[in-house]
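worker-3 :: picked ABC transporter permease
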Amino acid sequence: MINAKEFWKKRFSEHTKETSRYLKYIFNEHIGIALLFFISALAYYYRQWLQGLPEDFPTAWIIALAFGFITGYSPVRTLLKEPDLVFLLPGEYQLGDYFRRCLYYSYVVQLYLIFLVSAALGPLYFASYPELGTRHYLMMIGVVLVIKIWNMMSNWWMLKERNLRTRLVDQIIKVVLNITIFYFLAQGEWVYASIVTVLLVAVVLYTYSLSRQKAGLAWDILVEKDQQRMRTFYRIANMFVDVPHLKNTVKKRNTLVRAIVDRVPYRQNQTFSYLYKITFIRSSDYLGMYIRLIVIGALAIWFVSNLWVKVAFAILFLYLSAFQMMTLWNHHRTIAWLDLYPVKKEWKEKAILQWLQQIMLFQTFLFGLLFVFQWNPIGLVLVWIGGSIFSYLFIQNYVKKKLT
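worker-3 :: tokens ->
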């Protein structure tokens, strides 16, 4: 006999230990300071922007899309592993309490996203619909919490369906209905919202009837979904610390390799220069994170009006990029063959420092171009000079010390 309650406690304890171990590296003091600065500046300009909010601003659509997607995205964490396909499958009928606890846990964990989005969109909603007031907005959040439960239960029932297209169509229909409900609710149209809610209930009941026709759970799908979510978490954690569980994927990216890596001279002292550059380009971690930080930093610089805050954002995202790319140094540390290379250690250190310097200067150049498009020559000079100086000092005074 399987004690479902004790089995859940064991799995949950293992899961929390695993995730908390990596979360403390993700939210370290460096990232914490950067996030604090970024959120504070964003909140300040968000408040200023709301004071001049246009009357025809599509607030209802923004509310509807945000709430519609966070209610529609309601995955169930089962904490299952590959061996469970063999050892737990025969005892499926004894695990009802285990899966109920999985549903409770999944719902509670996802509440933070609802409250975060609600808090962020609250000032926008009050500025657009002052006549509806706080009470109406709180009632709408209550509706979000209820519809979230319906979506989660429906998604759980649909996990018995092996046809991917059927699951995808079901998900799209529910998301569209969710968005429509909150679009009407945002404008105070409770009658229309109620009609669409009835349609959503009908879809949820239909998924329940489908699940009753399926015999047993699709264990392979449950394991695959859970592993997929853990891989996503590991990829994020791997940007901050080495994750042995993560299987890195490699992409060819022939164009970038020819443009950057093929220019490295074929000399002994350039061995690690070649290695770090091709790792940066072809690995699934570094290039994607580098581009995302550039895009987010560019958006922050573009939409902020104050010149000095623009420059501060440019320096902030230079710092974040360099701090994340530092992990290149340890990327190949588990490969013993590299120790057999007849190259000097200082060549390896020089290669990583030069490459980090180059990508920081390139990022500085891109940030400076934003000021060209905004016809702001003073900002261009400040970012190019300040970013270059910061890049040099950060590499020489911080990164270099961390490598030794």
